[in-house]
Amino acid sequence: MKSTWPPPSSIVVLNEVIDTFPARKVKTTIHLQDSGLYIEPEGYSDHGTADEFDSSIVILEVHEGRLRVLIWSDINEEEPTHTIDLEGARRSARKDYEPLIVCHICSSPIDASTAHRHQEGWVGECCWDERLRSSE
Ligand SMILES: [Zn+2]
Question: How many whole angstroms from 120 Cα to the centroid of ligand 1?
């Protein structure tokens, strides 16, 4: 995608997510560029932008090969107040894990590799007795 100015953008109206809270809507422009995704809520800006203009206060970008989010949460600060590296959220970063299962009879956490299927659940070595074994 070639950079253009103004970049292609979309306008969305963000609604309050808690329905018991007084309704508030924030019109937000999202600029899509090959250098990043720029989020510009109406009435919000950064330190260096003139008061009559909104500015992107959230940017999603790739920097030195790493996906990150920059956030300006304080208009009085020149630099981003938050820089969040997102590389830990890559699917490839997920660690293998054994799902936790519990014994259907005593509720103790049990080793999935030695658990026995029984009725709607699993039974661990803790409770796997002759009676259950004969019911297999
Ligand atoms: Zn048990």
Answer: 14
Statement to judge: residues 14 and 54 lie in one domain: yes
Q: Is residue 111 part of a domain?
A: yes
pLDDT, averaged per 10 consecutive residues of the chain (136 residues), comes to: 65 87 90 92 92 90 96 96 96 76 91 87 92 82
Q: Of 112, 135, 100, whose CA–CA distance to 125 is shortest?
A: 112
Closest CA to 58 of 34, 84, 39: 39
Q: Ligand 1 mean position to 136 CA, how many Å?
A: 17
pTM over 0.90: no
Domain that holds residue 71: 9-93
